[in-house]
Amino acid sequence: MQFQKTIKSRIELSGTALHSGEFVYISINPAPVNSGIIFVRTDIESKPQIKAMWSNVVDTELSTVLGNKDGVKIATVEHMLSSLRGLDIDNAVIEVSGNEMPILDGSTGDYVDAINRAGIEVQDKTRKYIQVIKPVSAHIDDKFVYFLPAKELKITCRVNYKNPNIGLQHLEYIDNSFSYINNISKAKTFGFLEEVEDLQKRGFALGGSYENAIVIDSYGVVNRNKMSYDDEFVRHKILDIIGDIALTGSTRLMAHIVAYKTGHKLNNLAVKELFNRAMCFKIVEEPVEVDEKAFVEEVFSLLDPVSNL
């Protein structure tokens, strides 16, 4: 059995929000067992709270946005959630001075460094998992996400962009804190220069810059010196997946996730579909035996051909 974890001490960070362009202050605080992750809007007098749950997702265009019944929102939560999940933390309270989380350097590296400096505390309550025992999937056009039976969290992700500067990238990730820190956390968000003007007219990417995003134009990567990995793009997609599946709440997802051309909308649809299919999962403290290979070959056959599968 694994025990729940929180952080040992309060963390304070600040920075520009990617889409609104506003400067925001946040703090990450320890929380009791079974709390899950809770966001608090400190810029509103009543300090409304929003729990990080799939059922509280109100928008998924270009980021994951949470909201409560009163219409209070907090946007771009996926990087914060990814860093907590990647570092094996179950419970925390995130105080935010605005309606969007800061983008920092476009990765989760700053969050990871700050959490490691604060320290991680093991709590006195066992962790529960939502273990997938039958396949669940979500599809949009040729894009898909599958949750397959597994005894640990694994992610197989593939992107395939028409832009030749990205093209087809494929990565298989097995979840643990060491791997997350070294192989995922430094992967920055990315975007295409030709889309920036239109996005900003629509109120997006107002805080974007060459310092907090990898920018691609028709000639290549404009700021390649900001890249941490040759296959940064698929790694950032895995970073986002980890953040979006953290929205299962205090019951942690255990599955082999196979994702193709995915994004926040599709990730959230897959989590919703899982919770609509109670026969496809079990709530456990220790993983039960499952046939992890039964569906993998069939699902992998849906991916574009690549020689090293």
Q: What are the key terms here?
A:
309 residues; alpha+beta; Ribosomal Protein S5, domain 2; 2 domains; 5-stranded mixed beta sheet
Give the structure's gist in a few sentences.
This protein has 7 helices and 21 strands. It is α+β, with helices and mostly antiparallel strands.
What's the tally of helices?
7
Largest sheet: 5 strands, mixed
Extended strand count: 21
Low-confidence segments, given as residue ranges, are none
Level-1 CATH class name of the largest domain: Alpha Beta
Measured between the Cα atoms of the first and last residue, the distance is: 33 Å
> Can you tell me the CATH topology of the largest domain?
lpxc deacetylase, domain 1
Full CATH superfamily name of the largest domain = lpxc deacetylase, domain 2
Detailed description of the structure:
- This protein is α+β, with helices and mostly antiparallel strands and 309 residues long.
- It has two domains: 3-127, Ribosomal Protein S5, domain 2 (2-Layer Sandwich), CATH 3.30.230.20; 129-300, lpxc deacetylase, domain 1.
- 22% of the residues lie in helices and 32% in strands.
- The protein has helices at 78-86, 109-118, 177-184, 193-201, 232-245, 264-275, 296-300; strands spanning 3-7, 11-16, 23-30, 37-41, 49-51, 57-59, 65-67, 73-74, 92-96, 120-126, 128-132, 136-140, 143-148, 154-160, 168-174, 190-192, 214-217, 220-221, 251-254, 256-260, 281-284.
- A five-stranded mixed sheet has the order 2-3-9-4-5, with helices on one face. Strands 12-13-20-14-15 form a five-stranded mixed sheet. It has a three-stranded antiparallel sheet with strand order 6-7-8, with no helix packed on it.
- A hairpin with a 2-residue loop joins strand 12 and strand 13 (143-148).
- Helix 1 crosses helix 2 (109-118) and helix 5 runs parallel beside helix 6 (264-275).
